[in-house]
Design goal:
Largest sheet: none
Helix content: 55-70%
Number of helices: 11
Number of domains: 1
Oligomer: single chain
Shape: globular
Distance between the termini: 37 Å
Strand content: under 5%
Mean pLDDT: 92
Low-confidence stretches: none
Number of strands: 0
Radius of gyration: 19 Å
């Protein structure tokens, strides 16, 4: 029961801080681009506005338009529950295993791709095709990167890996650890639709990936899609910062450790989000045919991390 309560707290914290993370990232970009910006609380207002609106669905659309956003949202909530963000406690029946998390990521990815195809538009199909191409290159790198970190620990459970890295700071600065974290950063940017792979603020149809798949959604359907996509960013970015800086994560159920874990997560997430947003200002979106080269490079880094892990062992 203690683990269940801790995971519920983790999910609630993630739901509360995710719009703030997006607001900080947008505001940082606005300031660096000499714009005032809408403020860090604008994502909260956007979600509240969408939830009040009745969803509009095209005549002849299938139930996929209704259920795909919910599948994305539920899979994202499960990822947030399993990834060690504020605590390393995990469920006994559903452990925070690497392969379980990657499988849930793939469920959300497929739901988004099917949603883009269901509209029957050229842009939706194009976005789904690009989305699946990126996913096919991202998932192996995620597996290889975290596997490299799991070799010294002897477990593929994410909570165990984070806890072990927190107890032994020397593992953080090893060649395998650094290579794996760099590879993870690249694939997280690709998986969450950030520059240089995708531009989250684009309005040009020919360059869209994520936005092209949700053109037919509106109202509550669009709210579920936005929140689900934002939660994936929170979970993956939180995993990266906890692997790179594995301190402050609650190791037990004491209230003091739990509060420390929440504060540490919020600080690390907002700092990482601000750094990502600041870096995006100085980046240009890659051409589509250059994206596989970038992701292949991240896979090479992950493979070198695995090799270094075995050599060090």
């Amino acid at each position: 029961m203690t683990a269940v309560v801790l995971i519920i707290v983790q999910v609630l914290v993630a739901l509360a801080v995710t719009p703030l993370l997006l607001g900080v990232m947008r505001q940082v970009r606005s300031r660096l681009e000499s714009r005032v910006g809408a403020g860090v609380l604008q994502p909260y207002r956007d979600v509240a506005k969408l939830l009040r609106k009745q969803p509009l669905r095209a005549q002849g659309s299938s139930p996929i338009l209704v259920y795909a956003p919910l599948v994305l949202l539920v899979s994202s909530l499960m990822i947030v529950a399993l990834v060690p963000l504020i605590t390393t406690s995990s469920l006994v029946t559903i452990p925070s295993d690497l392969f379980v998390v990657v499988s849930l990521l793939l469920v959300g990815t497929v739901a988004m791709a099917v949603l883009g195809l269901d509209g029957g538009t050229a842009f939706g199909g194009m976005g789904s095709s690009r989305h699946m191409m990126i996913a096919a290159l991202v998932e192996p790198t995620v597996l290889m990167s975290v596997y490299a970190l799991s070799v010294p620990v002897g477990s593929s459970t994410l909570s165990t890996i984070v806890a072990a890295r927190g107890l032994d700071p020397a593992r953080v600065v090893t060649p395998a650890g650094l290579l794996a974290v760099v590879a993870l950063v690249i694939v997280v940017l690709a998986e969450t639709g950030r520059l240089p792979v995708d531009n989250p603020s684009t309005h040009l149809e020919l360059t869209m990936v994520h936005e092209a798949m949700i053109l037919e959604s509106a109202g509550r359907d669009l709210a579920w899609l936005e929140v689900g996509s934002w939660l994936r960013l929170t979970a993956l970015l939180g995993l990266v910062v906890n692997l790179a800086l594995p301190w402050g994560v609650a190791a037990d159920a004491s209230p003091l450790m739990l509060v420390l874990g929440v504060v540490a997560l919020v600080v690390k997430l907002l700092a990482a989000g601000a750094i990502v947003a600041a870096a995006e200002v100085f980046m240009a979106k890659l051409r589509l045919f250059r994206v596989p080269e970038l992701l292949a490079g991240s896979f090479v880094l992950a493979f070198l991390a695995v090799t270094a892990s075995y050599l060090a062992g």
